Amino acid sequence: MAACFTWIKAEPIGIRIVPADTWIDPARPTNRALITHGHADHARGGHSQTIATPATIAIMAARYGLAEGAVPVEYHEQITIGGGVTATFLPAGHVLGSAQILLEHAGERIIVTGDYKRSPDPTCPPFAVTPCDLFITEATFGLPVFCHPPIAEEIGRLLAVRAANPERCVLVGAYALGKAQRVIAELRAAGWHAPVYLHGAMETMCRLYEEQGVPLGDLRPAVGAAKADLSGAIVICPPFALNDRWSRRLPDPITAMASGWMRVRQRVRQRGVELPLIISDHADWHELTTTIAQVNPAETWITHGREEALLRWCELRQRRARALALTGYEDEDD
């Protein structure tokens, strides 16, 4: 007999766990919310009770002023959220603190992934493959064209361009939560131990990562640095700062962008990027399809991205699937 999953609903503002009167990543304030990770299209302030990993709660406190009503839950810790439903937070491999949420009720197991990736990342624990009956997956890069190269190759390209242009700096646009810290950690792993200079908007999250036990090495503010120090340096900034007035004080910067969207030439042209770096914190097409096959759910729900192609992939393999229509989700500068 096929599972019914009547106790979980996909509503426009998010995933609702009916017996527990609880939401996952809701787009507006609710009484009780389980939060998968700290990005703004999943995490918001204003909930009466926020349940998340300790790192995600720290991120939300820094970004949204979260204070009261926060309940930290460690990875693999099972909690009861009401109505006979239990929840377990499992590593998602997306950013620091990110979690899949395993829900169990009435003999059924449901996983809500939030955002995730399968490639190694020194700044967060790896994705935990967990069998379930219903798998609710993101599909940000849910098209076969999206195949992310190994990050070591992209970091090698960055360092090669820097070495070939010793009088210029390389200015890397990267999302302030997750992407920037991953790029810095991978630079360190590749042997770059010189200072990395930061736009002011990156400093809070980098400091928080270090407080959470993720070493990032010698980080310095770009503002106030001598021009001679910035020649040949690597500077990290938010994507909006790549071509604005702030960047003009740097010594002839080579503009780079770290994003899965750098696979798309039109996006590269729109950004005016000289050095596109295909570095993503989301699963690519192969990772999405491999994960569904490994988890092997009775049914898959697809959200947050290019649902149609992944839905068709499931159908061609006689896998039950449906696309969801949730509001409030947006493209990150992945």
Automatic annotation (TrEMBL):
Which UniProt keywords are listed?
Answer: Ligase
Keyword tRNA processing in record? no
Q: Which GO terms describe its molecular function?
A: ligase activity; RNA endonuclease activity
Tell me which stretches of the chain form a coiled coil. none
Q: Does the keyword DNA-binding apply?
A: no
In this chain the Metallo-beta-lactamase domain maps to 3-175
User: Which lineage is the organism of this entry classified under, starting from the top rank?
Assistant: Bacteria, Pseudomonadati, Pseudomonadota, Alphaproteobacteria, Sphingomonadales
InterPro entries in UniProt: MBL, Metallo-B-lactamas, RibonucZ/Hydroxyglut_hydro, Xnuc_lig_assoc
What is the name listed in the Swiss-Prot or TrEMBL entry for this protein?
A: DNA ligase-associated DEXH box helicase
